[in-house]
Amino acid sequence: MSFIPHTDQDRAHMLASLGLSNMDELFEEVCAALPPGEVPDIPGSSESELSHELWDIARLNGRPDRTACFRGAGAYEHYIPAAISHLLSRGEFLTAYTPYQAEISQGTLQVMYEFQTMVCELLGLEVANASMYDGASALAEAALMSMRITRKHRLLVTEALHPHWLQVLRTYTANVDADIVAIPTEGGVTSADAVSSLLDDDTAAVIIQNPNVFGLIEPMREVGSLLADRSALFIAAAHPIALGLLTSPGEAGADIAVAEGQPLGIPLSYGGPYLGLFATRMEHVRQMPGRISGMSSDAAGRRGYVMTLQAREQHIRRERATSNICSNQALCALAATIYLALMGPAGFRAAAERSFAAAHELARELAALPGCSLAFDAPFFNEFVLDLPIPAEDVERDLWKHGIISGLPLGRWWPDRRNQMLFCATEIITEAAIHRLAAAMEEALP
Amino acid sequence: MSARTVFEKSRPGRRTTYVAPCPVPPPDLRKLPEAALRAEPPLLPELTEGEVVRHYTNLARRNWAVDVGFYPLGSCTMKYNSRLAEDIAAWPEFFAAHPLRPTHAAQGLLRVMYETERMLSQLCGMARFTLQPAAGAQGELCGMLLVRAYHADRGDRRNTVIVPDSAHGTNPATAALAGFKVVTCPSSDEGRVDLTALGKLVSDDLAGIMLTNPNTLGIFERDIQEISRIVHDAGGLVYYDGANFNAFVGRFRPGDMGFDVVHLNLHKTFGTPHGGGGPGAGPVGVVERLEPYLPVPLVAKGPEEFELEEDRPKTIGRMNVFAGSVLIVLRAYVYMRLLGTAGLRDVSGHSVLAANYLKQRLSTAYRPSHSGRCMHEFVLTAERQKDEQGVRALDIAKRLIDLGFHPPTMYFPLTVPEALMIEPTETESLETLDAFVDAMLQIDREARESPDLLHDAPHHAPVGRLDEVAAAKNLNVRWTPDAAGESRG
């Protein structure tokens, strides 16, 4: 297969204009400067051959029942309206690049502007960027930003933060003298008292995720008021669908808010590409990483959109930029924008309420199974931890035989939690699916 | 009116329902404490599906794209994107897979990832790749953290990174983010790294050098082996920014040039769509001595099946929540498998042929930044047009829009005044290349005959030149009913 349009005649014409007779002559200088390397022999294929081969490869993944995935833990299967993929496949969105030429990139720039507006609305803050790679890298950038603003190095991080997010945070801050201190939890929930006693004058930020890794709702407003008159910033990591019901980071007093935007119309995709949401207060806008679209006008007074505040960015500021971020997740941001426009306020709230309802119904049924109970008493949104009488990995294996993806066995992250499973339900989980899961669980348990 | 936002088209009470009314018993919100609840609901637009589809379809029509026409944006490799890859990425077996699924239920995905890693390693002459970084810049950060970890593990505190003056801005920004001090190395008159200057910059503190090859002028760094030797002798590592790998793919390998760490942009060389500015992917390859530091998880081939390797004591950690932009990796896999090595050799060959053909033809009217053979891209300077007619690179770029082309990259690299950086790629026909030349020659004539035509361009775009100064000064980066009132729609 080839996408090269040049005929033999075209090639000969172009080579002749350069005084050359064959393609290899274009590379004479390179060949002379390098030892001969061994290039692998990858055979090419036709579309039909390759798509058949990939069909076989795809089947190796197995095909679980899509209405029976009870796993969240950082990635959530919500309903994706069909219109989204149709709009995303428009070549004018799909095959454009960063809107360097505003006059012929108004589509992308206006989408960025609308996306920023919706992110501000969701997170309850004043200004948002046009996206980051994912929730975890957005959190890491938020932590770096808090260190720039406060010129302090201590980061108080809840121990109920998703462990992969913590790893990303550690990776990003490993070489900038960050001092990460864990805030302990009580009954699975971050202790506001502990925040209060750990806070000191060296603290750059307090980082809380709501709901936390166990699905529990954190005392966001309490932490917000603790920080209200302190120099340390409050960084909140949110779940975007939960924001249909739960207090927004801005309402709780957060200075910077981030979220994993995947639940907003982006498929699970085995982990990516996802979408980082990032918002802050207007006073910090010049320290914010990432691209920003702003409304402006042309000489005729026509409204238009441009990339703005570029003086923060790497292509202008080089080693003094607020971040090295360049391309990010424009098409995923478009998906989220369309998702929110389609859902509207009523649909958005309904997705949150139904997810909440489904998770609570699931918890009720599972906690009634022999030897099972909820691990924590605190209120939760769409996820909860279930204590099992046997190792969770055994249950996972048995449920897979029924085509069901169980909750996540927490022993995978914490060896002392091997009899615990983190379950999730969203609005796509029906009562019938819950009954089916409960029946399969009953069979798997002793 | 077409610049009206989706919010201005909203009407209270209008909606399309996607969430089933009652799949389970209705929620009992009393389970939540008052303080946990949201006080103000988010202001989202209220529209029907038909209105939403029409709104975003009309926005799409206000965009230029590879699918619309020629997009010779230098250093961005705006080539045609295979639609088979798009279709396959939309198969439920791939896109609906939960990232924390048991690995036995993800063997197809893991096989694609494993084979992609092997192909990229072989094409670059590297020992191993991580597929985790979500973009080129994140790949750079990953690579520089690997450089840092390598030195630290040897008890070697090295803090300086050399970056050529022609480098992309992400290089110095990345080195700084990884905690390094950045030193700029000047280019020679030929546009290459100045070996004498480089020799003076190396020291015991040198952690490494970040290089693009061909460099951002489209010139082959002929002395690359000597550069690698100088840096290695000083104890540093050599980093390859793969933004321009399209010139070499299938023919030459960074590993053979002495590079220790490589990042690739799958959305450039490996044909995945640019998406209006992402998502891309920036996998990072390393030579054997850097392998222990790669981020987790890595895909490994176990005795029976493919596995995700998490337990790596010397790892720098994790760049991404899960295994990276897997569906972008899948698209690149499809691209490599469709083309094969022979096809990839044709890619680099024809990208270099097209660039040299354009450079040759355009040199009659525009001065190239450097003479001689270019690789997959080249830089013109509009200095003469500026001095003689007061027409700047910006004006030429904007006039190109009127004539039906996306402008080249402007004012980059910073070492060339009034720069226009042109990368045609291998997928543009001779007719398109010739039409572009005709347009550029017409603009040169217009510069002499009617320069104001250029100063006021574009004349035929959805909007004229927008006031960027006002946009930065009177910041309006979020719609509110008030903000809309200030601007005429």
User: Whole-number radius of gyration of chain A?
Assistant: 25 Å
Summed up, the helix count of chain B is 16
**What structural class do you assign from the helix and strand content of chain A?**
alpha/beta
Counted up, domains of chain B total 2
Order of helices and strands of chain A: HHHHHHEHEHEEEHEHEEEEEHHEEHEEH
Which protein chains make the most extensive interface, counting residues with beta carbons within 8 Å of the other chain's beta carbons?
A-B, 204 and 204 residues
Low-confidence runs of chain B? 485-489
Order of helices and strands of chain B: HHHHEHEHEHEHEHEEEEHEEHHEEHHHH
Give me the count of strands of chain B.
13
What is the percentage of strand-forming residues of chain A? 5-15%
The shape of chain A, in one word, is globular
- Unreliable stretches of chain A (pLDDT < 50, length at least 5) are none
CATH class wording of the largest domain in chain B: Alpha Beta
Strand order of the largest sheet of chain A: 1-9-8-7-6-2-3
CATH architecture field of the largest domain in chain A: 3-Layer(aba) Sandwich
- Class based on secondary structure composition and strand pairing of chain B: alpha/beta
* Oligomeric status: heterodimer
Average pLDDT across residues of chain B?
95
Share of residues in strands of chain B = 5-15%
The biggest sheet of chain B amounts to: 7 strands, mixed
Q: In percent, how helical is the residue content of chain A?
A: 25-40%
